[in-house]
Amino acid sequence: PHFIIPVPKQNDTICFNVDERPGVIFNLVRDPLTGITVNGQTIGDKKIDPNKKLNTYFGRFGIVNEKLGLKLEVTTRSIEITSGKEKMAFTWSDTVSMKQRSFALQINKERNLVVMMGDSVQFVIVLHRVWKDHPFHQDYLGFYTIDSHRLSSKTHGLLGQFYHDLSFEVGEIHQGTDPEKPDAMMMIKGQELTVTRGWQRDYREDIKHGVQVPCWFVHHNGTGLIDGVHSDYIVSGIF
Amino acid sequence: ARLIKKRSSDPQAVFDIEIYSLKVDCKVTSRFARSVITSRVVNRANVSREVFFDVDLPKTAFITNFSMVIDGLTYVGVVKEKAAAKKQYQQAVSQGQTAGLVKASGRKMEKFTVSVNIAATKKVTFELTYEELLKRNQGQYELLIRVKPKQIVQHFEINVDIYEPQGIRFLDAHGTFVTNDLTQLIEKTVTETKGHVSFSPTVDQQRSCPLCQTSTIDGDFVINYDVNWDTPAGDIQILNGYFVHYFAPTNLKRLPKNVVFVIDQSTSMMGTRIKQTKEAMLAILADIHPDDHFSIISFDSTVTKWKPSIIEATAENIEAAKQYVNSLYARGWTNINDALLEAISMLDEAMKQHTLTEHSISLIILLSDGDPTKGETNRAQIQSNVKNGIGGKYPLYCLGFGYDLDYSFIEKMALENHGVARRIYEDSDSALQMQGFYDEVASPLLSQIELKYPENGVADLTERSFQQYYNGSEIVVAGRVTGNELDAYNMEVIAKGAEGDLFLKNQRKEQDQEKTFEDPQYIFGEYTERLWAYLTIQQLLSKRVSGTPEEKANNTARALELSLKYNFVTPLTSMVVTKPEDTLDSTMLADKLTEAESRGPPQDGQAHRVSSSPQSNYHYASRYIPPVTSVDGD
Predict the structure, then answer these.
(1) Which residue from B minimizes the CA distance to A178?
(2) For residue B634, which residues of chain A lie inside 8 Å, CB to CB?
(3) B13-63 pLDDT, tens digit each
(4) Which strand (E) or helix (H) includes residue B317?
(5) Which of B247 and B14 is assigned the larger pLDDT?
(6) What is the arithmetic mean of pLDDT over B320-327?
(7) Given this model, what pLDDT does residue A121 score?
(8) Which among A128, A171, A212 has CB closest to B622?
(9) Residue A114 pLDDT more than 70?
(10) Cβ of B373 and A172 within 8 Å?
């Protein structure tokens, strides 16, 4: 999966990939103050093209709001909501709009799911449908955080650690191995990293083609950018 | 000089447009060149066609006139203040879809393009005039004419008339496209003061092969020449109330020089830039004169002095310097500020210790690809630190690498310190460009040159004090004669040379001058006045880069006034061209680009960048989307 980290103050964006074996569950967001946690489980392709590297995606997300007693499990097939003792299940073929006192959810058929937690953050899960007879690829999900600043400054996780202040400097732009993608040096969190100018796609508006987001790509699973290493964020269960 | 093509996708249209005449006519009077390019085109089709008129003209030239004659009616470009021209343009083109007419096209040339619809069977005549003062470089002047007709032309002609009252020392003409067969077509006549060059291939001689419709004429037609320098104090020419003084003494002993090379070896220099820098430095080191002193300071995040002080250019030291240059590799960030201050301090210390040769001159040459990213990164502060540090003692020359360079940053720094900035274009010959620049400043002959004229005899003088004079270059001063013309000849030059102070006085007799301009067919009479205006505008524009806000405002106002008065398209003015078409985009502007604005296309293997401040404003075109933290897959 590719991570896109906007830095609005600097009108720029950082991105990185995390490559891990399929089935691994990562903690993406954990906010001890609001009690919100988001975990995601990776999936791979149906089979591996021997000429290409192993690609992984997110195929399952678990969202928990401890304070509301709310759990949400989203896969490429279904959406299950547990609120206290109540349990509801939907498919991506449904169009659903529900609003409770501190929680709202909207399923846009075959497209996306929007979750709002009170006045807090908003999550969007995008469904990527792949032709079912595709020899390699299968359906997968994307996860977008809107108004992430509404989560507390204690928020962490592979994605959540970037919800608050982040600053960096980029300079020494120079020719990289790909003439279309120059390299540069990035000073971030007191470290110097070699980064590459490229772009990633934001699929919220255009699910098929996405919108290109220019960004500085941090190599090696975001090493140097993320706190620790990516494997530090592996957890045992989706909740 | 000309390419005429059609925009239509209809292949027949190519043959419908015929360029039946293309003429380039240049007159050079005492280095001031006026070039007129005339093209006559006919639309042979029975429908209207669009034709383009593309001309490459030197970046140093100012367009002075453009006209189109269509169906007996003449449409003339009008030079206006840029803001006023833009306003008119915007009124005419509410949607702003037509770009300016002048675009940067390369190292030496910029491109002027205009297109117009021609009715069936009608003819159009385009005529473009531009003027420039030819610059003497390494002992010669160069007049460059770029010719590129995209088809065979019935009447193709280049005519150059040169008139140099000082006498022509040599004159050479060649074309990059001129094959052995065509060489004999270049006709050259040189008398004592006049030179004539013409080139007029027939239709068959233009063909790239016997039955081809494509033209072999595609490239640069170059004329190089120099004049005689018999009078040590230079040559003064007075005409119509204006005078020009050309000063380029020869037979002087060269001044020893003390040069500190400040070399950027930050990460952004990685790859070909550092490789070519090393190549150039090795060649430059090989050419350093044994009388000279030198040192090298390399910098990335930190500053490294090759030697603690500036040292003699002995064979051993040169060899050691070469080894040091070979050891440079790109790493770290760019600390321009500390590197330049270190260079200044090194020269200051040498002056203090009296370790430098008497009557020598000192200079700093910076080579960098741009953005300060370490230490002091505020560009204005760096400029201020360097200016205060140098305090007018040493000229600073700044060589900037690449299209993405913040040229205005290094230009201001160089101009504020009596030096010049030069862009090094990233190409296979970058090392040669750097070496070529060094060659220009390698042989200083004089320092602290001041040209003095009778106070009551002249006014409105262009710059008359110069820090250095380099062998093969030329100092030109122009002004208005206010008193008796003969007074203006009584001028003096004071300078410091290798053998002490130099004092020169004009020895020329006034009666010599009377004969000089008796043959008006070779000169355009107002050339002294226009040359004065050209030079004044150029110098005022330079001062705008380095002056205080008040000086900038005054210099801008004066430069604008002169640009409008003399009909020059400068960076302050635009030429409004109105086409005889009843369409929204019938009004266009011809602007003059500055080097800082004239970003060229990316070279092969180099991504197109927008750098400068802030450091991370590197953008690819993309639709704006609100910033959202996300994880997804492709």
Answers:
(1) B605
(2) 2, 200-201, 210
(3) 556 888 889 999 999 999 999 999 999 999 888 888 888 888 899 999 999
(4) helix B315-326
(5) B247
(6) 97
(7) 85
(8) A212
(9) yes
(10) yes
C-alpha to C-alpha distance for A89 and B628, rounded to whole angstroms: 28
Q: Are B31 and B134 a contacting pair, CB within 8 Å?
A: yes
Provide the sign of the torsion angle of the four alpha carbons B50, B55, B56, B59, taken in this order: negative
- Which residue is it, tokens 């109540």? A86
Interhelix angle B272-287/B315-326, rounded to 10 degrees, is 180
Contact criterion met (CB < 8 Å) for B607 and A175: yes
Order of strands across the sheet with B444-452? B465-470, B444-452, B492-497, B500-505
Contact A168/B616, CB-based, under 8 Å? yes
Residue B79 buriedness (CB in 10 A; 0-12 / 13-18 / 19+): buried
* Side-chain half-sphere exposure of B467, counting CA atoms within 13 A: 19
Per CB-CB distance under 8 Å, the chain B contacts of A199 are 620, 622
User: Is-contact B525 B275, C-beta < 8 A?
Assistant: no
pLDDT above 70 coverage of chain B, percent: 86
Instruction: Tell me the two tokens of residue B552.
Output: 């900038």
Q: What is the pLDDT of residues B595-611, one digit of tens each?
A: 776 555 443 333 333 33
Distance CA B76, CA B66 (A): 6
d(CA B263, CA B321): 13
Both tokens of B373, joined, read: 């990213």
Do B629 and A211 make contact, defined as CB atoms within 8 angstroms? no
Please, which residues have CB within 8 angstroms of residue B13's CB and are 6 or more apart in sequence? B6, B45, B49
Contact assessment for residue B357 and residue B256, using Cβ atoms and an 8 Å cutoff: yes
B5 pLDDT higher than 70 = no
What confidence tens digit (pLDDT) does each residue in B362-379 have? 999 999 987 899 999 999
Q: Is B601 on the interface with A (CB under 8 A)?
A: no
Q: Convert B83-104 to b/e letters by CB count within 10 Å (16 or more is b).
A: eebbebbeebbeeeebebbbeb
Q: Which residues of A touch B264 (CB under 8 A)?
A: none
Helix-strand-coil percent breakdown of chain A, rounded to 5? Answer: 5, 55, 40
Selected residues 32-51 of chain A with any CB under 8 Å from a CB in chain B: 40
| Residues A201 and A136: beta-carbon distance below 8 Å | no
> Which among B339, B134, B363 has a CA at the least distance from the CA of B227?
B134
State whether residue B333 sits within 8 Å of chain A by CB.
yes
Mutate to test the interface with A, among B371, B616, B617 (most CBs of A within 10 A): B616
Tokens 């630190």 correspond to B385
Query: According to the model, what pLDDT value does residue B95 have?
Result: 41
CB environment A72-94: b (16+ within 10 A), e (fewer): bbbbbeebebbeeeeeeebebee
Q: Are A120 and A81 in contact (CB under 8 A)?
A: no
Express each pLDDT in B528-574 by its tens digit.
899 999 999 999 999 888 878 898 999 999 999 999 999 999 989 98
Amino acid B581: pLDDT: 66
The verdict on a CB contact (< 8 Å) between B268 and A180 is no
Q: Which of B600, B588, B576, B618 is nearest to B373 (CA)?
A: B618
The band of B282, judged by pLDDT with boundaries at 50, 70 and 90, is very high
Residue pLDDT, tens place only, B483-510 = 877 777 788 999 999 989 999 988 665 5
Burial of A103 (0-12, 13-18, 19+ CB in 10 A): middle
Spell A34-70 as b/e; 16+ CB within 10 A means b: bebbbbbbbbbbeeeeeeeeebbbbbbbbbbbeebeb
Any idea what DSSP says for residue B520? G
Residue A112 has phi, psi (to 5 degrees) of: -155, 175
Angle value at C-alpha B527, between B525 and B533, nearest 5 degrees: 140
Rounded distance, CA B560 to CA B553, Å?
10
